[in-house]
Amino acid sequence: xxLKFEIRPTPTPTxxxxxxxxxxxxxxxxxxxxxxxxxxxxxxxxxxxxRVESRANFPLDPAAAVLHYAQExxxxxxxxxxxxxxxxxxxxxxxxxxxNSAERMAMAPIPEDVFIEAVEQLVRxxxxxxxxxxxxxxxxxxxxxxxxxxxxxxxxxxIFSVIASPVGSYFKGGPAPVSIWVSENYTRAxxxxxxxxxxxxxxxxxxxAQAEAIEHGCDQVVFLDAVERRYIEELGGMNVxxxxxxxxxLTPPLGTILPGITRDSIIALAKDSGTRVREExxxxxxxxSDAASGKLKEAFACGTAAVISPIGKVCSAxxxxxxxxxxxxxxxxxxxxxxVDIQYGRADDPHEWIRKVx
Length: 358
Prior knowledge:
The chain is an alpha+beta fold and 358 residues long. Helix 3 (91-104) crosses helix 4 (112-125). It has eight helices and 18 strands. The strands form two sheets. Strands 1, 2, 3, 4, 5, 6, 7, 8 and 18 form a nine-stranded mixed β-sheet that branches. Strands 9, 10, 11, 12, 13, 14, 15, 16 and 17 form a nine-stranded mixed β-sheet that branches. The longest helix has 16 residues, at 200-215.
């Protein structure tokens, strides 16, 4: 299935002077471009009315299903400015994961080619908003249940939209090691739940644990499994990797965690270089003892926003410990450079992950 998008440029675009001022220091997710893409669904018409138009509020009835039963999903990806145009990084993987999320949440899956076309059309019309240097245009495709009713059932109407936000470099002065708090009171997901789905409920459920981490002076929270409360799963919004003295990498297996696209890319690039990658269970006690013995050399988190964040310190009610003396390690930093160089078109793209938009 494919839809033709109607393009309706905003009659009141942001002036170049104002846009330049906003791009000087956009932060993350606080500045937005002039347009949005939108497609609607109902059971009679299917997906229809695809267009790009001025970014504006949605009119929603107070009984809209999303407000009561949380049928909503989202994605996150970036557009990168390069010398000869604009790149997207693995939008097909985002479209595929979005479809999987929709199916798990009993929502109407949007065709993957429509997802990608919506993203590309928005990037084209708002390309002037892409910062230079290490900045990028963060793209947020999302879908909400819009049917008006109060019965507990899947909605029969949906709104799919894409908005865009220019973002600067995630780290000022380069990636700095983060400290993380081990959550022992809260869990993120259980087998059979929605841990592998990119839905807002997962993130809402993590906020109390994240607040607890901040109360203990940490940057992020890491969750343990919901059954035995022993096995490392993921951070509040990032996957995690461990680097050992034999050169191998370990990352928790999929099932109850989000199948991160950055995670998948790191696994592929590591295997390209001959590095052994294990997707295995790993306990908090193993983490502590391996860090103490020197068997564990590095740990890092990964995700779309930050790409790779070295983990320098782990804190818990049982005591704190450092990893690699609390410093950023060469494997994490080398992998980050390799991945970012592909995203910006500064290095070869052996897996054909780059999709050129302009």
